Amino acid sequence: MSKTSALPLVKLIEQFERLPGIGRKSAQRLAFHILDLPKERAKEFADAILEAHEKIRKCVCCQNLTEEELCPICAQPGRDESVICVVEDPRDILAFERTREYNGLYHVLHGLISPMDGIGPDQLTIKELMARLGSDSKVEEIIMATNPTVEGEATATYLARLLKPMGLRVTRLAYGIPVGGNLEYADEVTLYRALEGRREI
Questions:
Q1: Predicted structure pTM score
Q2: CATH number at residue 46
Q3: Most exposed: 35, 46, 167, 179, by fewest CB within 10 Å?
Q4: What is the DSSP string of 114-129?
Q5: Which residue range forms the structural domain that includes residue 142?
């Protein structure tokens, strides 16, 4: 490709290829689509990427992505402060919110414990979670909503060992979600049943 295409095009294709789930052909298709855009639309696209990088940060409470100090969920009055749903990724929050059945709070770990990938507890936001559970905390239950994978199970078990001595009820989502699946792709009914059928761990 590099011998027959302009270098800026090659670089653009390479950048798209670095995105998760994007292969060579998809990267080429996206790159040519960007080139077909009017210059103003292309600039809007580039500006949106830069603005997201500059303005989006982690919520000081739950570690969700936000533009303000608190994310919209933490700032929303009337949420059930007695329960925290622990998830791997901010996208998982969107999945739960689509169910319209969960009204508690969240905590985003930003990953899972995976020794094979060199990811230990210190690389996750576990310290921030523990800080939320101080003496003035209203939390009674922690729902472990990590994905049903080996890493998800290991992370849930590790956290349960930390949290149970604090007198908290620690539950795990029921397996309405298939093992090896991702919460992001689960439908609303499946997630609702998984929430309803959660078990203590």
A1: 0.77
A2: 1.10.8.420
A3: 167
A4: BGGGTB-GGGTTHHHH
A5: 75-200
